[in-house]
Design goal:
Distance between the termini: 35 Å
Number of strands: 16
Radius of gyration: 31 Å
Number of domains: 3
Structural class: alpha+beta
Number of helices: 17
Strand content: 15-25%
């Protein structure tokens, strides 16, 4: 009994008896307990009494697994009688909340499991010996005070979308605080009219100073209408991708021209070679070796020599690579004061080179130039946190085999990323993940 009391971690209770019962083809441990209280405070007059009138029938609740075996606890509550006011009342215990058939300890264990984005609801339910509906109810109750819209926003916010595939639509909209690395809210739609209606409820719209997003025109219009004093910033990742994709388009076009059976095709198709071309040259240690297949076996080759072999395949690929490097030089070295003039100079250079794919990318950069220049105001202004969050959401969605109910999907994401408003702390999340 003493060992079991230690395992239960219930110092205020004593074990009366232990038995096993077969339920749903599983042997479960049934433990009967009662509190060690010898007196209780009367809820009417406030006097303490030691007089026990009687005991109630055992109330069964689910508890944490003991030695990997599902456990149920039968609490035998005592009824006291107050001799001052002649009131009979039941003792107050903290093992479970009123009306709940699971213990507070098991509920807290489920809440911690829900913080782990690698665990599905089904797995959490099965590992804790409860139903999926119970797990859903626990999450919904924990998040029932979470706000449905944002009354106030920080000075810097970011917009993005992710593929949700819920009943509300294909894409969901996410609002983040990138400076403090916090998800502010997730909305079921990304349509301009819906976003404008949502942000009308925000009280400090005119205090927002920067909105970070991609080159999606409806987001720009939302900023101009709802946050007129803010500056719109195109995230570096998004506009740099246009340049990288342009270089890829040149490579793919040349692949097709050389044909499937050519040496050039195999070199341009190799994923490691593609990754090498896309990297900024200053980030690569060129005089280190890498391995490639040659004449049926692996050989060591300097990264510098490999790059030169790739660029020697075709002059257009070489020029495209140079233009990509020139753009990356601007990105890494210029300041807000000179960004506009240096990017315009790069656009002029692209026109002189006469490569169709790069010209198309340069035209996009030109159309969004004022908002791209804003990204040089502060190098911390980035959607990097948002991209990381989106990757985590993909895992949540995949582990759960999709979520059709957007409201519940939103609660699960917000709980995993932010915890509830009280109770579960950042420390708990870090310990679990």
């Amino acid at each position: 009994m003493e060992e079991m009391e230690k395992l239960l971690k219930l110092k205020e209770y004593k074990i009366l008896k232990i038995e096993e019962r077969k339920e749903e083809d599983k042997m479960k441990k049934i433990i009967y307990i009662e509190s060690k209280k010898r007196k209780e405070k009367c809820p009417i007059c406030g006097e303490y009494t030691k007089s026990i009138h009687d005991k109630l029938k055992p109330m069964e609740i689910k508890y944490l697994k003991i030695l990997e075996q599902e456990t149920k606890i039968n609490i035998i509550k005592k009824r006291f009688v107050c001799h001052k006011c002649n009131k009979k009342f039941t003792e107050k215990l903290t093992l479970n909340e009123k009306g709940k058939t699971i213990s507070t300890q098991l509920e807290q264990k489920i809440l911690k499991d829900l913080l782990n984005y690698n665990l599905s609801l089904k797995y959490i339910a099965e590992s804790n010996g409860v139903s999926s509906g119970t797990v859903r109810n626990i999450l919904e109750n924990a998040m029932n005070e979470y706000p449905k819209y944002l009354k106030n926003l920080p000075k810097v916010i970011s917009f993005d979308e992710f593929k949700a595939d819920t009943k509300e639509g294909k894409y969901a909209f996410i609002i983040n605080d990138p400076m403090h690395r916090k998800v502010l809210d997730i909305l079921p739609k990304r349509k301009k009219e819906y976003l404008i209606q949502y942000f009308t409820k925000t009280e400090n719209r005119h205090s927002v100073e920067f909105v970070i997003s991609d080159m999606y025109e409806p987001y720009l219009l939302v900023q101009q209408i709802m946050f007129p004093k803010a500056k719109y910033i195109v995230d570096r990742f998004h506009y740099t991708r246009y340049i990288m994709d342009a270089l890829d388009k040149i490579r793919i076009r040349l692949q097709k021209e050389y044909g499937y059976n050519s040496k050039e095709y195999r070199m341009l198709k190799n994923k490691k070679n593609v990754a090498l071309l896309r990297k900024y040259s200053n980030d690569v240690e060129w005089y280190t070796y890498t391995q490639r297949y040659k004449n049926g076996h692996m050989v060591d080759i300097l990264k510098y020599d490999l790059r030169e072999q790739l660029l020697a395949i075709n002059e257009e690929l070489h020029k495209g690579y140079i233009l990509k490097e020139l753009f990356m030089d601007v990105l890494h070295t210029t300041t807000y004061e000179y960004a506009e003039s240096e990017i315009k100079e790069w656009i002029s250079t692209v026109k002189n080179y006469g490569i169709k794919e790069m010209e198309e990318a340069a035209e996009t950069i030109k159309n969004w130039l004022p908002y791209i220049v804003n990204s040089f105001i502060d190098k911390r202004f980035s959607n990097g946190y948002t991209e990381g969050v989106n990757n985590k959401i993909k895992v949540i969605k995949r582990i759960g085999f999709g979520y059709k109910n957007f409201k519940f999907f939103r609660l699960r994401i917000m709980y995993i990323l932010n915890g509830r408003l009280s109770g579960i702390t950042k420390k708990d999340r870090n310990q679990k993940n």
